[in-house]
Design brief:
Distance between the termini of chain A: 59 Å
Largest sheet of chain A: none
Number of strands of chain B: 4
Radius of gyration of chain A: 17 Å
Number of domains of chain A: 1
Number of helices of chain B: 20
Mean pLDDT of chain A: 90
Oligomer: heterodimer
Helix content of chain B: over 70%
Shape of chain B: globular
């Protein structure tokens, strides 16, 4: 049985980060993109907690993760409000359809 | 000095003023009938906060505040002055802007002041957590300010794009920060610096972490390849907010970037020359960003028809010029960046004030709305616009020329001849599109459907002040360079 260590957590963090980035780049639905951003934020959280647990002897990492969760909530609130506004004016939340601003 | 929470408040007066004003504006919005008073109150608050900052300019001694979360030093004071001036001009413009009249006044000015408060924190943060919080503070308020005109397609779309790019950029940044934290075991800039100087870290992992972190900073200063939001957001946002983002946000991004790369990732050697530590060759990344930003920005600006969009690409190019000053790793380079930021404030806000003036009477901001501006009542605005644009292009004897002169002098002295050549060529390219606007204003005849532009006293006062600044600092710039000179002093503990 293999011991689970720092490396495993970092690999999970990197995979979640890549999944979030992939989600942001491929989704056309605004809510889907915001979910990708959440994944990116959570990948950083995994890293902070892992580093805090395995290499640093302080609670700095835990603190950072709590702040990130809080800001993610704030960003989601503002994000959903903006998406709602978009839906009212464009009647869709497809980001390819919202392209008034072009050259 | 290392101050705890209670003793820190003595150094924290400007922030407190803004913080109290934000809450007061939200409450006043509920009780005050005359909404136009709220804007005046915001203007007065910014002025008071600016005075509070200037009052601390004479050296009271530098200190870490709130258990090393933020710092009080000459560098942060310089940026607080720039942010206060930028917000002051923005509030002034907002009072005259027709777009802003339609939005809820209390919320608008409260958010604007909150954004300024966030910028103060961006300039003072000395901890990765504080840097992230400050950046998000400014970003979240900016998203709302961008989308503040309700039921407007352009405004809503701009804020959505800003939100998505901003979310991804700041997410990438904290992922990079998590690696910096893991490799150095510290969130504190001084702690990171000590750990890097010991040189135990894998420099490749550190390099990748720094590049990821740079995504967040690069997005705030609108440098290529993190600039994609800028043209759309600048076009869609109300014009005072565009001016605010192009100067305030960019300066705040530079403050964060400079403090991260210099006190945290470099070591000050003899004669104001900095050295890279820990094997992270970050000046080379900045060099590439600088060259790409100015080239892409200037080439894209050539083909624009919307003046706001053109100025957006011009601001991307200016981020590139300013980044040149970082590459040389010297106090002289830093000084020229600070000087340029101050000059850029004058000429760029000025240009946007004229765009607002034209948009107020024509409702548009494309080239056609500027056609023959000088011959349909807008002679004074047209002359002022020409001054701002020639200053942006760097033509003597205007302030923009002096700014560029210091930047190029710094890089030539450090023998970056190729970079200087690319910068000079870019300035020539930029002259083409700035001159195109001037030609449209003076040489093209109005075709009768553009409407009359008239200058009112209020906007006229702002434009006059900025024009005088742009002209005077082109001839007598000693006070500004002295201020920049004394501001290149980071508190290193």
């Amino acid at each position: 049985m293999m011991e689970i260590g720092l490396t495993h957590f970092l690999v999970v963090g990197a995979l979640v980060f890549l999944a979030g980035m992939f989600c942001v780049l491929t989704r056309r639905n605004a809510i889907g993109i915001l979910m990708g951003v959440e994944l990116i934020l959570n990948s950083a959280n995994i890293n902070y907690l892992a580093f805090s647990r395995y290499s640093s002897m302080s609670y700095d990492g835990h603190l950072f993760a709590i702040f990130v969760i809080m800001l993610a909530a704030a960003e989601a609130a503002i994000g959903l409000a903006i998406v709602l506004g978009i839906y009212q004016t464009f009647h869709t939340i497809d980001v390819e359809a919202t392209d008034t601003l072009r050259l | 000095m290392d101050l705890g929470p209670v003793e820190s408040f003595g150094f924290f007066v400007p922030e407190l003023i803004l913080g109290v004003a934000v809450i007061a504006l939200i409450v006043a919005d509920l009780v005050v009938r005359r909404k136009d008073l709220l804007g005046m109150a915001a203007l007065a608050t910014v002025a008071v906060s600016l005075i509070a900052v200037v009052a601390t300019l004479p050296d009271k001694g530098d200190a870490y505040l709130f258990n090393r979360m933020i710092v009080h030093d000459q560098f942060s004071l310089f940026f607080k002055i720039v942010f206060s001036l930028a917000t002051f001009a923005t509030v002034w413009m907002s009072l005259d802007s027709r777009e802003v009249q339609r939005v809820s006044q209390g919320e608008y000015y409260a958010l604007l002041l909150a954004s300024t408060l966030g910028m103060y924190f961006m300039a003072t943060a000395t901890n990765l957590l504080m840097a992230y919080l400050a950046l998000e503070f400014v970003s979240l308020t900016s998203y709302v300010l961008t989308g503040t005109i309700r039921h407007n397609r352009r405004s809503g779309e701009a804020s959505l794009k800003y939100l998505i790019y901003g979310g991804v950029a700041s997410g990438t940044m904290i992922y990079g920060m998590s690696w910096i934290f893991g490799l150095t075991g510290s969130m504190d800039y001084a702690g990171i610096n000590t750990a890097l100087a010991a040189g135990q870290e894998d420099s490749l992992a550190l390099f990748v972490a720094v590049v990821l972190t740079l995504a967040g900073f690069g997005y705030k200063i609108a440098a290529v390849p993190f600039h994609m939001w800028a043209p759309d957001v600048y076009t869609g946002a109300p014009i005072p907010i565009t001016a605010f983002l192009s100067v305030g946000s960019k300066a705040a991004g530079f403050a964060l970037l400079l403090r991260f790369f210099f006190p945290a990732l470099s070591k000050l050697g003899d004669g104001g020359q900095w050295q890279v530590i820990g094997g992270v060759e970050w000046p080379q990344i900045i060099l590439v960003l600088s060259v790409v930003s100015m080239t892409v920005g200037n080439l894209a600006a050539l083909q624009q028809d919307n003046i706001k969009r053109l100025l957006a690409y011009s601001s991307v190019a200016h981020a590139g010029y300013m980044l040149m000053g970082l590459v040389v790793l010297s106090d002289e380079g830093l000084r020229s960046v600070l000087f340029y930021i101050m000059v850029y404030y004058l000429m760029n806000i000025g240009a946007f004030a004229i765009v607002m003036l034209v948009a107020n009477s024509t409702g548009r901001e494309d080239f056609a709305s500027f056609r023959g501006l000088a011959w349909r009542g807008g002679a004074v605005p047209a002359v002022a616009m020409a001054i701002f644009l020639f200053s942006l292009a760097g033509i003597p004897p205007l302030a923009g020329f002096v700014g560029k002169f210091y930047l190029f002098a710094a890089i030539i002295r450090s023998e970056f001849y190729a970079l200087a050549l690319i910068g000079a060529l870019n300035s020539v390219v930029s002259l083409y599109y700035y001159a195109r606007i001037v030609r449209t204003m003076f040489l093209d005849q109005p075709q009768g459907d553009e409407g009359v532009v008239s200058l009112d006293w209020s906007t006229g006062g702002l434009v006059a002040a900025l024009t005088v600044g742009t002209v005077v600092f082109g001839v007598y710039w000693i006070p500004v360079i002295n201020l920049a000179d004394r501001s290149v002093r980071f508190f290193l503990g």
